[in-house]
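Extended Data, record ATP-dependent helicase/nuclease subunit A
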Amino acid sequence: MRPENERFTDRQWQAVFDGGNNLLVSASAGSGKTTVLVRRVIEKLKSGSDIDRLLIVTFTEAAASEMKERIEKALRQSINEEGNSQLRAHYVKQLVLLPQANISTLHAFCMTVIKRFYYLIDLDPVFRLLSDETEKLLLQEEVWTQLREDYYASDDEVFFKLTENFGSDRSDEGLTDLVMRLYQFACAAPDPNAWLEKLPENYQAKEGFQNTALYQENIKPAVSAELELARVNYAKAIAMCQNEEKLLKDLELLTNQLDQVNRISTAISNDDMTALFAQMEGLDLKTNIRKKRGELAELSVSVKELQATAKESVSQVTTYFPYPEAVMNDLLAKSYDLVVKMSEVTKAFSRAYTQKKLAKGVLDFNDLEHYTLAILAAPQSPAANYYQAKFTEVMVDEYQDVNRLQEAILSYVRDNTENAGNMFMVGDVKQSIYAFRLADPTLFIEKYNSYHHEDNGRRIVLSENFRSRKEVLDFTNLVFEQLMDERVGQINYDEAAALVAGFPNFPASDAFQTELLIFEKGGKEDVKHFETRQAGEIQLTALKIKELMTQSFEIYDKEKKQMRPVEYGDIVILTPTKGNNQIIVDTFYELGIPLEITDAESYFQTTEIQTIISLLKIIDNPYNDIPLASVLRSPIVGLLEDELAQIRLQNKTGFYYEALRDYESYGTDEQLKAKIQVFLAQLESWRAFSKRNALPDLIWRLYEETAYLDYCLGLPNGIQRHANLIALVERAKNYEKSNFRGLYQFIRLIEKMQEKDLDLAEPATKSVENAVRVMTIHGSKGLEFPLVFLLDMARDINRLDFNRNYIFEEHLGAGIKYIDQMRQVSYETMPYQAIKQVRLNKAFSEEMRKLYVALTRAEQKLYLVGSYESKEKALQAWQSALTQESRILNPALRLKGSHVLLNWVGMTLMRHPDMEAIFTEAKDRSYTVESPAHFTIQWFDQEDVKNWRENYEKLENSSVATPEENLSSDITRIKERLDFIYPYEKATQTTSYQSVTEIKRVFEDPDNTQENRLDWQSNLEKQQTVNRYTAESLAVPKFVAETTQDAASVGTATHTVLQLLELTQAPTETTLEQFIAKLVANGILTTELAQEVSIPDILWFFNTPLGQELLSQPEKVHREEPFAMLQKTTTIFKDYDNSVDELLIHGIIDGYVLDDEILLYDFKTDHLWQGNEAELVNRYQGQINLYRQALTETYQRPVTKSYLIFLKGRKIISLL
């Protein structure tokens, strides 16, 4: 029983003292879980236990250190307060034992186990931990290179097929990526080899795929559940219509659709695939209930919503059966050998990599866990017996982030006696956001559900929050009570999970309501002050922070127990990723807002490091065009863009280094020649030095002879830049200590890390005092801040994993796409489809939990920042919630679309009474969410933000001060600039790159230049004719200036018409003629070219199904959109043998439809006849592939349809 004078709640007290069985504490954000854990430890010690008989596992080393500090503080206090000499002596003993206590990360505990019991697995006890990611990467590459060569030498036919399926005609990097990712994924399993060996089981379908374990145990239950949901919703809709005479047609339609669903359900139940596919082929659910007016309006909306929900469930079912039965079985049969070989190769790599590590005397973190498990799991293991007898309790912090392998280790050190248990697990599954580290929240969920019954263990839920104001908690509850359940989020956000305010001292105030700041990117017509939505959102955030400071917004100081004006240090900006940090740095610097960016792994992206790495690349090989251009443009050489262009004109076809050499000999600008001569002499000197000296010595020489180190020190954020450059020398030293040598290998290592998105943290420097902090949501976990701005809420979930040719899941194994090499068609196998659905659901669930973590970081006020094209678009996205009749939103609404976080929040607010003042449509809601939460929404278009910025600047400049005040102000400003910590400055890479290695002919409209993949040698002369330096950038377009109407000019004119034509209504001959006449009048087309544009061809296109699709959704159609992306040179030029060089490719895409998936189309004005169709398709395939890649990388969504539209031939061809 909790004493009355204890500050703990009843549930916290229970969590401190309950014992006798395994205990799971589900501790919501801010509920004091660390305090409870420390108090439980102290009470164990008070009862006579020793600290070294407890195993306390934390998620990070920092958490372990904090835990020890808290325990030490509590012990010292107990020593001072204890009157009993025996107890005091016991506490002193615990203080002595504390440094050696088992309070650590699981990896540290594993190290202890291995060092004590290494002999049980015949392991050499002398080893070094392979903690450097760069060394690990080099070692893996060395092993894989040898293994791959061995397979090639063996003439293994299935291996060649595996390479073809996952690689490309240019490289086998796709196979390398597959093996590395599969190996890493398998390492999270308790037995990686066993997991890999089971992978082919899902492809054994000799008796039909319906007899596979994957189908029977996973797909069939999932499909049956969806069909049952559809049947229930159809039945509800039918019941609503039965007594309404005016709804008889609707009743008939719904009954027919339900009958179809019932037949499919019967076929699924009976495993009758013939009947199933027959029903699927004839499935017709296209017709929708129409909304009625008058007295039936409300009823028809409900019926329509039920029908839509039912159809969504059926749609989910159809995704599992994308092809006819025979095709699905054939795909499994063909894929079986590939999966067997994939498993074999990955196991071979694992064995070879393990042998290499043992030979070098190193272990990595995966080894620590696997060797520990091997030691503990051995039959009658003395190690397991030792630890089970030693530890009176095993305490695990952040249990929601444990994986299956770690769970297995813990199971061997805890008490496994029946009806007993000594595991104390604390965590919050709502904060499980480490899927990328292969954390498995289902372990927590399984215990949460089973521990409800005390014979399995006990669970305690801590829901009181002692961190945040009631306004923050009410808003968080409002959002998640409608969003999170077992389907999306993986746990029910019920009454037990809801946050309860536990800190009573916050003064009452209306100033702490959550604010949504929404940037309307579309803005007014022709107003584009911000090129990206992120730039607008960040500018809006910076201005809001400035407003808070100038208006002296007050917050409650918990230490002083009084209100005080907010400071910069009270504010944190949370971002989903680090991708926008550079824009944040630039924007805040311009406005004079001090900034500190934490947990930023962007070392290789900083300008100074990229410059030196570019210099190292050309020392290794001066024929690297892009690094050479970067160095020439940098302060090291200091050439201007015009000078770079002038050099290229000296030699238009060769490498840029050759052009540089030619200009040194034949150039006309003596000043430029002098610069080049100095640089080339330096370069030759450095190249000679690099062959005779160590890499760190070379880097130091570069610093000394270029004075680049001193130059960077004088720049904004110079201290950090200087530290970065010094750290590069240290990293070069570590590289050479790891038995690797050579400049080329060092450069290759860095490139590999960048390819795998493995960056390093910048070296720590003195932090900025009183600065706004910027960190990722992941980095903020466990922390709290008075004011929180959550940025980039319009961002979509990361869909890259769903665009690869393979996908993994810990329980379901591996799914692959089968590539038909003859047809170049990609097919998703049934395991791929099943795993993709599961992983997609998990991705949305994790994104939801990340939102929960972000909202619960705020102590006093939340600002949610996002963007839409317009307020109308926001309404369109949010109002789908209005027809929902239950508190929790339909899964179909939560599992689709982009703008995921902002859509989720917007939909939950739509049914709150406060929304009526913002959208009058909110009055028509079917369900009203009762909540004490209140919020405001502010909308800012481009002009609003621009004006706000200008008004702020005027206000800053309008104050008149005395000379002394001005001097003081100047000194303060200078000091702020000198002290400003600037940890993130991404290099601007594109300017110099565009001016040197542009392959423009590949991406000009192929009506003018029709090429697929260029032959490097045979196209050298062709390239110079399109070099960007040969014509002025603002020259009159050729199709306006020229008088002859060649085919290319007519094609370009036709594209112009199609680009500018309004899509809000179907064009007619008359409207087209009027529109083209208007283009002529405005000087966009010449009269001669206007006459050549074929109006009948354009009308033909808009009468096709594709044309009609564009007209039906004009707001989703994007036309003549530019793009730019880096590509390996070898992907463009088939004879180019340097796989390191890259080109910056840019072009303009005719059009695409942007939805959850992307439809891409491209107009052609070639003449099409029966004999040349295949030739034309082949010609354009490479171009379309690059367009698809650009769109996929830009939007993180798949391009599922691609069309070539031949206007003259009046034919539309679908490309794969």
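Summary. DSSP finds 47 helices and 27 strands in the chain.
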